[in-house]
Amino acid sequence: MPPDSASTPEPVTFAGGVLDPYRHVCAFVDAPWQDPVFDPFISDGVDRGDRLLYLVDPAASAAPVNRLRRLGFNAGALLEDHRAEVRTWTETYLKGGSFDQAAMLGVLDEVLVAQRSPRIRMLCDMGWAADRADLDDLIEFEARANFIHAQHDHLVICSYEATKFDGAFVVDILRTHPMVLIGGILQENPFFVPPSEFLGERDARAAS
User: Fold this and answer.
1) pTM of the model
2) Backbone CA torsion sign across 126, 43, 177, 144
3) What angle do CA 142, 144, 149 make, to 5 degrees?
4) Residue 80 burial (C-beta neighbours within 10 Å; 0-12, 13-18, 19+)
5) Are 19 and 13 in contact (CB under 8 A)?
6) Strand partners, 70
7) Residue 121, burial from CB neighbour count under 10 angstroms (0-12, 13-18, 19+)
8) Which pLDDT tens digit goes with each residue over 115-125?
9) What gap in Å lies between CA 3 and CA 82, rounded to an integer?
10) Of the candidates 29, 83, 91, the residue with the CA atom closest to the CA atom of residue 51
11) Each residue's pLDDT tens digit, 70-88
């Protein structure tokens, strides 16, 4: 489901792999987006003139800014020029107090599809979901998000701490991402199922 190749910009490398044509990554790390594996990806984005967008825990909203400073960048200038932006879970995934997948798909459409340039490197800490009993909506959301990601050239990395989720969830969340970072290495995900097929399977299970 890659975007039209005629408008596709230069590919981007991340953790030893190339994010082209698929740019929706499931990253299993100990510290979402703060793992050192992200530093070259972030630095390369700033150097190329891309925009950084972080979706983070409200309690950690200063962390991306501090990390940019540690990487040697003028974080204040990047924020002022809208080359870096930090949004919290309460402004995105949990806006209104709970997760609404339709609302969050709308956020993705507004942020990614409606804004073609500059290219966005979106780093999402998915830790908000770790203590939730029912994660079916999130799994379905990640599958449906692929329809949106097929319409743009931005880069989206969803970071999960695998130890905080059960095995069944990890298997399903793997099936919704065409690329996976595991063990510090990026690879095309052999478990990925195209969203129409994945959602059809879920509908069939629910009806049986």
Assistant:
1) 0.92
2) positive
3) 85
4) exposed
5) yes
6) none
7) buried
8) 888 999 999 99
9) 25
10) 83
11) 999 999 999 999 999 999 9
